[in-house]
Design goal:
Blueprint (H helix, E strand, L loop, with lengths): L1 H37 L7 H38 L1 H6 L6 H34 L1 H4 L2 H22 L3 H33 L4 H25 L2 H11 L2 H37 L4
Helix pairs in contact: 1-2, 1-4, 2-4, 2-7, 7-8, 7-10
Length: 280
């Protein structure tokens, strides 16, 4: 049943998302052409180049805007499916509330992933069009090979045999952090629906900004105290192998914190949907 829920959630988002994604591909193509114009060194085209710079900035912003559009679609889907008239039908489905929530979390993760892939490909396309001559030269690939070799040596020196572990570890941190941040926003929307009937969206925004203010303040206090800086300096003072182990341990601690936060937020959100939500 979860598979069917996820399929319908993704279908509801992708029928709008793909329009924005295709638009960004077009903007990437335009950006590549603008880069080629900017490469022309001729004072007679100064005005054209100034306009090209402005247009290029707008194109880059348009490509980056795909991430914002994805967030909007995710939150609109969550809100409409639970807290509008559609919610009455949603909660009559023969599924458990946690399955509905799991589907919404997976929907968000998948949408974020494909959005990130498209944005990266857009920038690659823009650079490919803009620097086509350089890319097809043998010297370019020789420079890339030299850079990769130097980067590999640096990674081996810094991480030793732990590089793959570090990468996997911090990818998991990124994944769990994304789940936790998504659940925070879902929770703000749910709490707003519980405590306010007329101004749910405004209340949800206020709750999220309140959370952001408190969390940002806590981070600033932590950094201002110097504890984090002193911790990193202490790690740097350790031996090479000890520093590698310490960095790995920090990654595990971060992963554990985000796993616990995501699990707690998921259980709280599931409880609110199951016990406290009143659509009457």
């Amino acid at each position: 049943m979860l598979r069917k829920l996820l399929k319908y959630d993704l279908r509801a988002i992708l029928k709008y998302w793909w329009i924005a994604a295709v638009t960004t591909v077009g903007l990437a193509g335009i950006s590549g052409v603008l880069i080629r114009i900017l490469k022309v060194e001729n004072t007679r085209y100064t005005a054209l180049q100034v306009m090209s710079v402005m247009a290029l900035v707008f194109c880059v912003l348009g490509i980056a805007l795909l991430s914002v559009i994805s967030w909007v679609l995710i939150l609109v889907r969550f809100y409409k499916h639970f807290f509008t008239d559609e919610g009455y039908l949603t909660f009559t489905l023969p599924v458990k509330k946690h399955q509905l929530l799991t589907s919404k979390v997976l929907m968000a993760l998948i949408t974020h992933f494909i959005t990130g892939v498209v944005i990266i490909l857009d920038f690659v396309l823009a650079l490919f069009i803009g620097f086509a001559e350089e890319i097809f030269r043998a010297e370019f690939w020789q420079d890339v090979q030299i850079f990769w070799q130097e980067l590999s040596e640096v990674l081996r020196e810094v991480g030793g045999g732990y590089v793959t572990l570090y990468i996997l570890e911090y990818l998991l941190v990124l994944l769990t952090a994304s789940v936790a941040s998504t659940l925070v926003i879902y929770l703000c929307i749910t709490v707003a629906a519980i405590i306010s009937r007329k101004y749910k969206i405004l209340t949800a925004i206020a709750l999220y900004y309140g959370y952001s203010f408190i969390s940002t303040g806590a981070v600033r206090i932590l950094l201002a105290d110097g504890n984090m800086y002193s911790l990193f300096f202490r790690i740097a003072d350790l031996g090479v192998e000890s520093a590698k182990m310490a960095l790995g341990l920090l990654g595990l601690i971060g992963l554990g914190v985000y796993v616990l936060a995501a699990a707690g937020l998921y259980m709280l959100e599931s409880y609110l949907l199951e016990r406290k939500l009143n659509l009457v």
